[in-house]
Amino acid sequence: MSNSIFGKDGTAQGVAKQRLIETLAKSDKRIINDPYADRFVIGAGFIKLMGHKFSVWLGKKLVPGLHEHLIARTRFIDDLIEKTGTTGAEQYVILGAGYDLRAHRLDLPSSMRIFEVDQAEVQARKRSKLPKTITNSENVTYVAVDFTHQSLAEQLTAAGFDIGKPTVFTLEGVSQYITKEAVSSTIEELATLIQTNSSTFFISYVDELLDKDPEACFGRGYPNAAQRAETIKSLSAKVGEPWISFYTAEEIASLLSRNGFSVEENVTLEDLNSLYFTPVGRTLPENQIFKLEHFVIAKSQNN
Ligand SMILES: C[S@@+](CC[C@H](N)C(=O)[O-])C[C@H]1O[C@@H](n2cnc3c(N)ncnc32)[C@H](O)[C@@H]1O
To answer: 64-300 in CATH: which number?
Structure first.
């Protein structure tokens, strides 16, 4: 257990806070909508008073592009889940779910079973904050797993996961917080759960260049890239969840390939800027591009 005042959910709150800030934008200006995010964020009332524009402006003073990066990640996965939901995925496993509310805020087929996996303490706080009645709750099963010492496959199958059904798995914003061994063993276990069907896996990872060549992890002209990289790492460490694992694209592709997946897409905010922010008049300039975390979609090779 960390010594942080946040317990084990500091970073989960951090991401929920960005979803709350984005949700405060006018509906024709925002790229995601999470009407539940405020329930999980300490100080949500104050953020609401500050509003979207001021909160984003303030965030840019600390780490330009971080808000847009996290929100683009959310939207990228929202699009993936909605697409796979309509093209045959019958199960959705949210690994390291934190305060992810996709089960309740997206329009998913009522036949799609959803398994939320996270540490027991984080799940307990989440459940205590959710409204008593919420859309689609009958389709959600909580499965407590600590990736560092518990078997994902055992816990999921005990909770009713069906290895015969096409599934979409997401591991969003988690791989940097756990050891490479834990990521590797989690993906190995996941591979045993999809032997007989067509499945999709999303993973985000932090580029190892963050340590070796920080400038390469931001757009040209990004202010004080090396110093900013240290700020980002220290913000996570301060809430008790330091970033400890970094990867190359080749390492991720090889890890996935060894476990029966082939990479279909590997993108960053740089690729998503024109797709998501330009249509709402919020294109980020090059010197605010934050591209140190990659978003990868892989398909099981049984497809
Ligand atoms: C940055 S949060 C991301 C939460 C969510 N995926 C999102 O993007 O909003 C990281 C999540 O990973 C979970 N996590 C960290 N270490 C874990 C472990 N060893 N086993 C299971 N979950 C873990 C945390 O509890 C937290 O919910």
So the answer is: 3.40.50.150
